[in-house]
Each structure stands twice: as structure tokens, then as C-alpha cells.
Amino acid sequence: MATETRTPVLAARGGSFLIEERRVEEVFTPEDFSEEQRMIGETTADFMEKEMVPRIPEILALKYETTRSLLRKAGEVGLLGVEIPEEYGGLGLDKVSGCLVSEKSARDGSFAVAFMGHTGIGTLPIVYFGTEAQKKKYLPRFAAGEWISSYSLSEASSASDAMNAKARAVLSPDGKSWILNGEKMWLSNAGFADVYITFAKVDGEHFTAFIIEKGSPGVSLGAEEKKTGIKGSSTRPLILADAVIPRENLLGEIGKGHKIAFNTLNIGRFKLGAGCMGGAKGALRAAVGYGRGRTAFGHPITDFGLVKHKLGEMAILIYVAEAMVYRTAGMIDRNLAGVTQAAEAIPRIEEYDVECSMIKVWCSEMLDYAVDETVQVFGGAGYVEDYPAERYWRDARVNRIFEGTNEINRLLVPGRLVRRAMKGELPIFDKAMALMGEVGSPAAAGAAAPAAEDGFLGPESRMLAGAKKAVLM
Amino acid sequence: MLGHFADIAMETYALESALLRTQKKEGTGGAESGRLPAAAVRCFAQDALDGIEVSARRLLSAVADGDPLRTYIAALRQFTKRDLANTVALRRQVAEAAIEQGGYPLG
After folding, report:
1. H helices within B1-107, ranges in order?
2. pLDDT given for residue A444 in this prediction
3. What is residue B4's predicted lDDT score, i.e. its pLDDT?
4. End-to-end CA distance of chain A
5. Which of residues 16-45 of B touch A (CB under 8 A)?
């Protein structure tokens, strides 16, 4: 499915970080990027700087043709096909490369949503679940930016509880088409998309995915949503009124739409983390740039301790985010090594659903801290549209809502860990019982007692050991 | 309650990821390349443990009371006992590098 990450990292079991110790050589870090990975990252950064940034005002004016033409150009340099296999017109690169592209694409929130909505949740359902004919029809066009994709799971009355969808699908009397009825919400890219990946219940019962093409009979769009941020991103509802969809446009299997929905979101979540990290780097750059030039009491405000606190904290949190995101991407790539079939890839990615949810939550909240403090460093200038800080702040907020709210993702973490423990895949309960037996003994003092072999960051290693015990207790 | 558990797990994964990255960096690039990242990790570790303690206290208070709760809290104190670091100075060290370089200094 993809080229292999160079460093021989360990494909540890998902969630095993709680009960196992890792050695440094077992984890992938940004310092391990290969030349190829660095190049795709630099190509993306270069594209965004030269092609996209000068057109931000047009993007923010919601000029569909601007975003479409930029996506087409991104396709010409290969950026839309990073995770599409080579046989379908993509580059077939690994998840580390995919994360690098996501990180570097986050120069502007609106364009990043369009870019990632297309390359991620808009494209990957067909990469992983499409038939050969569907892959041949859609993926080369998606990779080239000739066709743009959009994805929707939500409805007016179901979002986090997506399985409660009201949209219905029935087979037409002649058996040649699906007839869909319902209304889907929050489709990013909707206004200029050619394809909508969406979900409906076959015969009102079986949750199923469909590929819908623009202009199909009975398919229309509602008005643009008036959003708080990402104002240059098109967000419209999809209205299905006796919509006629060719029978072959059912995606995956009848009643298995949840597998497509959740696995697509899984990948989307950790790539969203990469995007948030890229956005936070931009916010930090803006805050430092403004702070160095702004004087108060005869000094640049970056001389003041309270401003230094904000800048230092942002940088530290970004460093931690990079470590989490690329460690996880490296594990997924290692777990995908040797996989040639898309169907085989899904459970190997799903292995890291806990890590993907954690990254989504942690990085989106980290970004909100960064953009909030960037506004603060800008002061009054941070609250007016003449400067970018207020836009960063508005654009960032949606990351805690879409791709599964942070509340849903928080619930998924213990839920999935317990499910694995119950299935005997992760001996969490055994470890927890053993730990409770230790309580009160010297061995329990994880963070307290210096070890004889204390090395580089030894105290912090002991703090980590103590943290793992706190999770299990 | 489940949210507090998730918060503890996230901070643990974050700390381990940053710690291993920094140890690897120091191991391959030498002490100087690990200096600033080490300051970042030392600062983050203190804050992560603070956060873990708060979340764990709230979680334990929701599932136990009386003597069992006192036992759990005593165990938590044992697990998270540590020497404090000067996080004000560590954070400033990272900030000054960011100011000098015009942005993220740890990449």
C-alpha cells in the first residue's frame, strides 16, 4: 500500500504504552525523517508559501474557483495523491509523509480544511473500501485535483451518534439504482465538490456508505453555513430528495457503513493532529514576530516574563505534539509494512484508534491554547481583522468539534482500552491488580526514588513510570 | 470520570513520546542537540504530572470515599512524588530560543 518508513521502529500494540516500557530505538521521531519524507514536506511548504498564501484574501471571500484552482495546482505537483496508490495516479507514500503534508498545509485554516477534507476523509474511503472500478474511476481524478471530494456523516439530529441517521436508501424497482432521501449536514468542500461520500440506512435499517456525484437527479445543496471561522471553506448541507444513485455507487458492503465511517475518521483524526501542530507553529511565528516589534516601557514585549511564558509554553507543547504525531505515524507505517491489499490495511490502522483519538484531542486543545495566547500577545491588534491573530483564533476552534468531538474521543479512549482488555489483547487488568498489591511498598514509589542507573532525563523517566501507575490505579 | 481517565492517559502518552524523542535526539546528536529539548521535556514533565494528579484526584473521589479513598490518594501521592524543577527558567530558556529564531526553535 505504501513505501516503508526507513527506521526500524516497533509496531507496538495499540494502547500498550500504558503497560509496557519503550526503548528509544523503538519509536519514530521527526529526527528520523528520510530524505523523501523531508522533500514532500518541503514541497508542500513551498507550495503553500508561493501559491496559496498570496491568495488567502480570495479564499476568505469564499471564491470557489480560487480554492479549486489551487487544489488543481496542488494535484499537479502530487500533493493530493500522497496516500493514493501509484496504480491509481497517486504517490503511494507512507503515513509519516501524509502527516508532513497535513502539517505543512496548515498555513491557512480555510484552505487546510479544503485540502485535508479532499485528501483525507474525501478520498480515503475509496482508497480503503472502493471496488476496483470505483478506484479506477475516482482516485486518478482526485489525485489530479480534477474532481474534488466531500464527506458527510452528520445530520441535523445525529452527529456524534451517527448510527441514528435518518437518511434512507432503497433499491429502485428495476434494481438499477439506489433511491436516497434525507439531509446531511456540514459537508466541507460542498460548494465546489464533484463527489459526496455519505451515509444512509438501506431499507431504513442497514447503515451504508454511498458515492454520490454532483448533478445526480434529486441531489442538491443547501445554503452556505455562516460559520465563526474557516470562512473560506465551503460548508453546506446535502439534500437528497428521491436522489437516484447508480447501484454500483454503493461503497463497501450494505450494513457496514460504520466501518467506513469510523476508520476514515481514525486516520482523519491523527492527521488533524498534524494539521493542528502546523497551525500552532504558524501562530507561534506570528506571536514572536509581532512581539519582537512591539515595544512597551521601552522594551520589546518579548522581554517580559509573562510574554516569554506564553511563547515558551507554545513551543514546548508543539514539541510534544510533534513527538506524539510522528511516533504514531511511524507505528502505523511499521504495522502496514508488507501489506498490499487495502482491506488488510484497515485493521492494522484500527490498532491505533486509541492513539488517534488522543492525538486529535491533545493537539486540537494545544492549538487552541496557542492561538488564544497569540491573540493576547497581539493585544488590541489581536482583536481586529487587520492582523491574522483573530483569524487563527476563530479558525482553530472547529478542530475540537469536527472529526468526532473531543468529548466523544475522550470517551473512546477508555472504551477501546477496556474492550481490548476484555478480549485478552491487553493485560491492563492484570497490571492494575498487581499494582494495587504494591500500594504502600517501596516499589510503588515510581517517581520518587532515584535509580542507581539514572541517566539523561532520569528523573523525568521516573515521573513517566509514576504516571503509568497513576493511569492503572 | 471517563474523561478524567482519558486525560491521564493522554498526558502519559504525550510525556513518553516527548521523553523518548529527546533521549533519542541526545543519543544520536550529542548533548548539545539535546539541551533545549531537554529543557522542554523537563518543563512539560512537571506540568503533565500536575495535570495527572488533578485528574486522578477527581476520578478517585468519584469512585470511592472514606478509608478506601484515603488509601488511593496516598498511593497517588507515592506514584507522582517528584523533585520540582524550575519551570519558570526552563520555559524562558525555550522562549528565548523562539524569540531569537523567530519561531518554533525545537525542530
Report:
1. 2-29, 31-63, 66-80, 87-101
2. 55
3. 97
4. 40
5. 16-29, 34, 37-38, 40-45
Question: Which residues pair with residue A295 across a beta bridge?
Answer: A300
Helix (H) or strand (E) holding A142: helix A132-144
Q: Rounded to two decimals, what is the model's pTM?
A: 0.95
Instruction: Give chain A's residues under pLDDT 70.
Output: 1-7, 440-453
Contact between residue A148 and residue A122 where contact means Cβ atoms under 8 Å apart: yes
Asked if B53 and A322 come within 8 Å (Cβ–Cβ), the reply is no
C-alpha to C-alpha distance for A464 and A332, rounded to whole angstroms: 23
Those of residues 43-102 in B touching chain A at CB distance below 8 A are 43-46, 48-49, 52-53, 56, 60, 71-72, 74-76, 78-83, 85, 88, 90-99, 102
User: Active-site residue A65, yes or no?
Assistant: no
- Residue A296 confidence (pLDDT): 97
**One-letter identity of residue A203:** D
Alpha-carbon gap, residue B73 to B38, rounded angstroms? 30
Q: What is the pLDDT of residue A190?
A: 97
**Type of residue found at A470:** A
Distance separating alpha carbons of residues A79 and A81, to the nearest angstrom: 6
Task: Evaluate whether A213 touches A194 at the Cβ level (below 8 Å).
Answer: yes
Mean pLDDT of all residues in chain B? Answer: 95
Distance CA(A103)–CA(A201), nearest Å, equals 35
Which ipTM was obtained for this model?
A: 0.98
